[in-house]
């Protein structure tokens, strides 16, 4: 009975639960009552859940939005509509959907709403749909909304082999950009080249403050990058800022590399650079119509072959903590996904 994965079959549904903030390994699988959709809600049989860096932050207690404990973690999932509550007319039982929620995706059932959900295209697998959620939405809004990207510009992507980074590479290529993909190894370089990146920026050496600018200028004839997408922070931010072209735009997405950088704003003045930030969930909550338009564009890019989620590994439901540990340690290329519906 000390096995955290033990449950009595048939008494409800399995769900990861967080009772106290800590490491991913502190999560426990518990058998809890089946869910029921309320007004405006949909009940989904989850087939696959995507793992994101914010999941690690939520479990550790370091994220800006924390649910009341105990809670079920997970922000991304794909599955099949089981039932709909009163007032739901957009979807029906049996529909295949993907959805992004604030928490609750790491379970055999999840509740969501029509505004947070999207009908999966024919031919898309549940694993790919779960991998195509939060990171692709984040990358799209960073590139298209926050940076105000224009067709044909040069885009420097930090952490380009990671979830948000690789999504940004694919979206930018699909919109006609020249992409400079910043990576740490030849293995990562192969991944970004396979997604269409025309240039690779090597982050494995020292003094990134200088080396990023040198490499970007070499790739752009000394002009620099029109757009910088930065999910890393730390030393990458300083190097990327120096590599930005006149009137360039830098979008801060996160701080996966650890340190939160500071900025001397006189540099912005000297090169007419703008720096902005992205908190995607605000768009989901405030302007769901923009999120739906973004997803429509992402599905278009998927149909045209530009967007192809790279699932490095699909983990069994019982292995979700191992998947999160890889994300926490920066060892994931593309995405890792947890198989839920097939776990029994």
Question: Gist?
Answer:
By secondary structure, this protein is α/β, with parallel strands linked by helices.
Topology of helices and strands:
Blueprint: E1 13-17, E2 28-32, E3 42-50, H1 53-60, E4 76-84, E5 96-100, E6 109-112, E7 117-119, H2 126-131, H3 134-146, E8 154-157, H4 163-174, E9 178-183, H5 186-194, E10 199-202, H6 208-219, E11 225-230, H7 234-242, E12 244-252, H8 266-271, E13 274-277, H9 280-286, H10 288-303, E14 311-315, H11 320-328, E15 335-339
Parallel strand pairs: 8-9, 8-11, 9-10, 11-12, 12-13, 14-15
Antiparallel strand pairs: 1-2, 3-4, 3-6, 3-15, 4-5, 5-7
Helix pairs in contact: 3-4, 3-10, 6-7, 9-10
Give the class from helix and strand content and strand pairing. alpha/beta
Question: What kind of oligomer do you see?
Answer: single chain
What is the radius of gyration computed over CA atoms, rounded to a whole number of angstroms?
A: 20 Å
Q: Give the strand content.
A: 15-25%
The low-confidence runs, each spanning 5 or more residues with pLDDT under 50, are 1-10
Largest sheet: 7 strands, mixed
State the helicity in percent bands. Answer: 25-40%
Instruction: Return the string of H and E elements.
Output: EEEHEEEEHHEHEHEHEHEHEHHEHE
Roughly how many Å apart are the termini? 19 Å
| Shape call | globular
Q: What is the number of helical segments per DSSP (H or I, 4+ residues)? A: 11
Mean residue pLDDT: 93
> Total strand count, please?
15
